[in-house]
Amino acid sequence: MFLAKRLMAGDEKAYDILMNSYYQRLCAYAQSLCHDQALADDIVQNVFVKIWVKRKKIIQTYLSRIICINPSIINLSTIT
């Protein structure tokens, strides 16, 4: 969570950590979908640009989804 707070505050080092942690894996995944390395790189670069530009909204949305999903999982697990 600390990384998310730093990212929301505009900490470029936090952004670098995020990018260094996921860039290669995301490129590999994108390439498996589009079968074009250059296009995959472009797609992932665009994703990271959007993450930086919309970092506050993206993180808030992500955290809100976690909160919404967790009660559903808890309720489903009590049914079975």
Descriptive report:
It is a single chain. This protein has 80 residues and is mainly alpha-helical. The chain has one domain (2-79): Rna Polymerase Sigma Factor, Chain: A (Orthogonal Bundle). It is built from 4 helices and no strands. It has helices spanning 2-8, 12-34, 37-53, 55-79. α1 (2-8) crosses α2 and α2 (12-34) runs antiparallel to α3 (37-53). The two termini are 31 Å apart. The mean pLDDT is 84.
Order of helices and strands: HHHH
The number of distinct helices, counting runs of at least 4 residues, comes to: 4
CATH topology call: Rna Polymerase Sigma Factor, Chain: A
Round the Cα radius of gyration to an integer and report it: 16 Å
- Give the class from helix and strand content and strand pairing: mainly alpha
The total tally of domains equals 1
Provide tags for this entry.
90% helix, 4 helices, mainly alpha
Task: Summarize this structure briefly.
The chain has 80 residues and is mainly α. The protein is built from four helices and no strands.
List the helices and strands and how they pair.
Elements lengths: L1 H7 L3 H23 L2 H17 L1 H25 L1
Helix pairs in contact: 1-2, 2-3
